[in-house]
Amino acid sequence: MIKILTFFDCYNYGAYLQAYALHNFLLDNDLDNEFINYRTKKSIENERVNELQPGAQNFELRLKILLKIYSFKYHQRKLKKTKPIYVSADLKNEKYDKVIIGSDQIWCYTQEWGGIDTTYFSDNINANKIISYAASLGPDNYNKQHPRSILRLMKNFDHVSVRDHNTLNFAKLARPDDKIGPHLVLDPTLIYNFDQEIEEPSIKNYIVFYSDKLEPTDDVIIAIKKVAKERSLSIISLGKSYDWCDENIITPSPFLWMGYMKNADMIVTCMFHGLLFSVKFQREFMMFLNVHRKNKCLDFLNRIGLENRVIEKSDDVSNLFNSTINYTPVNSFLKTEVEYSQNFLIRALADT
């Protein structure tokens, strides 16, 4: 039985869908697997408090957020997983054959809910083989001074793959003697076909705004609203509430969330998986970024040749609405990279 250690039980569409995609890609290749149900209580509580905070003074919004949390928990229960483990040291008592650590920004030890957790670097993982798949440092720069314990633990991996060049450079620094890696692969959401899971929305003619709290500048918001009015498009926010959007859809299931993304006339996002699903569904999109997003988002945009989809000033909004993305070279790139990523994972698991 293959075990997966990643973020699968938080209230984030990208995190859940990357875990779901990896789990089901393995099942489609006759590789039985389950998640190591590990997360510290501190991490769980910090996320819960943060998620509920916007509804502190608004009962209706708080109720919607609670329904969103319930929806995520309902879908998380459908994933095959071990018994809950809240303390990293308790993992030493478990013996595994093969463990995949990743995907998502599991190596971002300065930003995540529970602070530094060396478990995601293989600490206390007792396994015959440990593989990282599409791991990421997130906004942490590869050339900063990393804790020695983390650099030491990186040597425990039998095969290393990452999803961005920043993390690739980190892995090279941490594993200078690695002769066969590290490998640059795609996020699991791009190697799995969700056609059977996507739920279609009941509305049409809309712009999706998808963010975790970050908003564009006021002049960019005005420009988005202006173009939306000119084109008779409504602006809907998915998962969070923003007073400038026409509608806030707080509680879509992960699969209905994909449906909204797939059918949008335009997607405005700052989120990494907002970007990936825009590309996966070949949607028109634009991104607004800050320093915490640039490492992972700009890296992928550069790889697919769409770095011009970033909003630098308010005038860019109209220009990006009036331009059309040529997905032919993007699809050609993705076809090659999907095959490479899938082959890496299958071969790494088969390697003895």
Structure, described:
- The protein is α/β, with parallel strands linked by helices.
- The strands form 2 sheets. A 6-stranded parallel sheet has the order 2-1-3-4-5-6, sandwiched between helices. Strands 9-8-7-10-11 form a 5-stranded parallel sheet, with helices on both faces.
- β10 (266-269), α8 (272-280) and β11 form a beta-alpha-beta unit.
- The chain has helices at 13-28, 41-52, 59-76, 148-153, 165-174, 218-230, 254-262, 272-280, 291-303, 315-321, 327-350; strands spanning 2-5, 33-35, 96-101, 127-135, 159-162, 183-184, 206-210, 234-238, 247-249, 266-269, 285-287.
- The model has no long low-confidence stretch (mean pLDDT 95).
- Helix content is 39%, strand content 14%.
- The chain contains 11 helices and 11 strands.
List keywords for this structure.
352 residues; 11 helices; 11 strands; alpha/beta
User: What's the helix-strand series?
Assistant: EHEHHEEHEHEEHEEHEHEHHH
Residue windows where pLDDT falls under 50 for at least 5 positions: none
Biggest pleated-sheet summary? 6 strands, parallel
* pLDDT averaged residue by residue: 95
List how many beta strands DSSP finds: 11
Which oligomeric state applies? single chain
Derived from helix and strand composition plus strand pairing, the structural class reads alpha/beta
Radius of gyration: 20 Å
Content of β-strand: 5-15%
Distance between the termini: 15 Å
